[in-house]
Fold these 3 entries.
Entry 1:
Amino acid sequence: MKPFLEFFPIILFFVAYKLYDIYIATAVVIVATIVQVLTYWFMYRKVETMQWITLGLILVMGGATLYLQDEQFIKWKLSIIEWLFGSAFLASQFIGNKTFIERMMGANLELPALIWKRLNLSWALFFIGVGFLNLYVMSNYSTDDWVSFKTFGVPGLMLVFIAVQMAFLYKHVPTTETKK
């Protein structure tokens, strides 16, 4: 259920865009994100900080898109979110005892501190890079292309990046034989 909830707003955004236009799709993604956050609240009795930030950004940027009838605001939201993720990962390189990625994965994986830092830095650079790639796509391609990039390109890039990370981690994960 949780993976469906994660993609619920973007799927509805894409469908609404294909059936109507960017403005209807923006209204749909605003409502869908509100429903998503409320559903998380009722199911888990908590909402993650980044979900609140995403909701706030979708309300502000989506609201500006609808009010001003300017699609650039909703397009900028993706870059802002990616840069916030990247900044959070980057800041954790210098703040606290553990990097952001180690806090997320450390209970399930033992790695040397240097590897955690490299892994964390690669995630920071990935998110920041996707934010800039979004700017490039939104500035140089049609809205149709941007919607496809947002819906399929960004998740595709994420899957490829995760596969590369898994290959990198495979070299550093202790095997059962080395633990004896």
Entry 2:
Amino acid sequence: MRDLKISVVVTPEISGLPNFVAVGRPIPDGIGASDVWNFRGDASEIAPGRLGDREVVFLGAGAISDLDSSAVRSLGASFARRLPKFGNSVLDIRYLADQFDEVSSSLVALFEGILLGNYRYDALRSKASLPENEADFSSVTVVVPSEWLDAASNSANVAKLHASATALARDLINEPAKTMTPTRFADVATEVAETAGLAIRVWDEEDAKRERLGGLLGVAAGSEQPPRMIRLTYRPSGTPLGKVALVGKGITFDSGGLSLKPPGGMEAMKTDMSGAAAVLATMSVLGALDCQFEVNGYMALTENLPSGTATKPGDVLTTRSGKTIEVLNTDAEGRLVLSDALTLAVEDGAEQVVDLATLTGACVVALGGEIAGIFSNDETLVADIVAAGEIAGEPYWQLPLPKRYRKHIDSEIADMKNMGEPGAAGAIAAALLLQEFVGDAKWAHLDIAGPSRSNKDVDIFAKGGTGFGTRTLLAWLTD
């Protein structure tokens, strides 16, 4: 993500810079947009015009009645996407001030939109392939009512941390699997631990064998790349409000194993470690955001590839918990690696456990590409995470965990099987398997298979990994 400085001022007279003035629909009195452009104030619409003695560019915010945090975040992203054309610019939001329900959260959303709308993964592109004739830009100025100045400055600092964490997750997801191996991910986690003052433990392959991480080892059996299990630990300076575990699925490339995916199904499978990326990204800024919980972040990392040593359909794996899983489909591997990570989290005394995983295509079928599924054994935890997701602009929809469906994962030869009934409740079956490993802890499973990746440049997203879940966790743990 381009390093972009945000300055907050209370006067718009910034000479020599393009001035954008954000207005919603209906258009307030005094807005003199050019009649030629027929400006209506629709979201992302722009038109040149005058405001007093200033030449400005009006930027539509959409219907005033719909101006929630998500709309404000989109407004910030719309502004950011114009910077390559206009260069360093000014955004005046004072015409929207009366419409902000909660000033600080709305300003955080606006600044997040500016920063995340500016994200682009260029690490592997040559200069020749970059867009031509882009203006240089390194800063933006946001004009706010004078009484908002302190709140805006604080909100900008929070948004920068949220955006930097999200950008870290996106960078990890977007890096090709050839280089973003489990070992490389562990190296990045070690660097993050050193920078953020976190304790870290990394289980290598021998550690995993010694400590009976059978689910992880079973998935890793077909790859030449050794697996890793990572635990990062954050402790606040005072007495913690509680002990939380974050658990992320980290399949750095998923071919499906011997249950091989079709070619088209593999094209985006470097993104199958989005859950682990979100966990690492969240951990990276907890200290800077003064989180008051003790948090352990667990990331289970491996490739899932076919070979002569790969786990075969019909094999049985013994997980760290001692429970056995019959593997009927090696492409249902995320639940296998998570079984060990969840067990470690419970053994370490977590009171609340949240896992994130690009787990099932069934959840995408149910909820589409923009909404994540949430499953839980605790309704208060669900409410808290859904509320955090609303703040972050990351929506969730609760799906059930009916006890009568537990029979869907009954095995004839093991404690359970890794597949449910054919064509029926696949996301629920996966969640029910995970529930077998959380003990008495309050637990929520976030199936982020749909919103973990964007197929186009839109709103705050660039095509590729989205970092979905990162800002939800941050809002939940620190807001």
Entry 3:
Amino acid sequence: MKTIYILSRLLLIFMVGLSACSKSPVIDNATMLDGDQIFDPSLYNPVKYLVSAAIPNPTTAQKNTPVLIAVHGYTATTFEWDEFRAYSSSKANILLSQVLLGGHGRTYEDFKKSTWQDWQEPILTEYNALRAKGYTNINFAGSSTACPLVMDLIKNGQIGANGMKYILLVDPIVIPSTKILTLVGLVGPMLGYLDNNNTAGEEGHYYHFRPQETLQQLLDLTVKTRKDLQEGYSIPTGIKMKVYKSIKDPTADAISAVLIYKGLTNSDGTKVDIEMLDSELHVVTRLAGRENVTQHDKDIQTHVFDDMYKMIEQ
């Protein structure tokens, strides 16, 4: 039975990959993020996106103002947190850093050769830059793949009690909903890449094509995250964590939240806060660019934003 299961999955991936046909996709430079014309705006206007760049010499009041480092997921860009920026723009007591993952927001070839450690680096860079400038109330909000990236920083002691207050995880991917990812090492080199099936509103903000090399990096990251959680570790003293998880997430299985609940503890040994959301979306905090967004989706997004803001502003 196990052999039949594996063969069926291989066949499924092969069928999905038929649309690729070639290991080198045909990229439309005029519309696709993958091309050499469209880049994430944070690359050429960092002052608008990073607090460390926008405020080179913070005042004492600014140093004590809550800063939220918001980080997107795999194949995405800073666009994924634009809606929270719009939400928080009228909140004078929060500063927002939208961090672009390494290797993202650039050409397909740049993305293709990046590692998950490359993706992670800008998160730590902005955190350390804020610490160096004296900020005392640093917080983190991550969606999807950003979550295991920051969890790894916690596990390695690179983010700790030095100014960090809240860590908020939105639809963290520890177990993928689709099992295709687990077989990428077997058939990925044969396929070359997979189509991301972006909507018209997502094109230019998300990679249209997923290189098999980056899928392998994502697999490696999730496997490492699961092993770390199986071993168990604690959040540093003074930091609080909350996880928001869609129940019917098509990308990150809901059991991801269970593994975090079992494997991560607060410094006093208590469990981290998990909130399961009645949603069928992956990354409920991003609705822009999606098709068929309902009022229920909007209500959930508002609830999560309100909850995040209430914690951070304290």
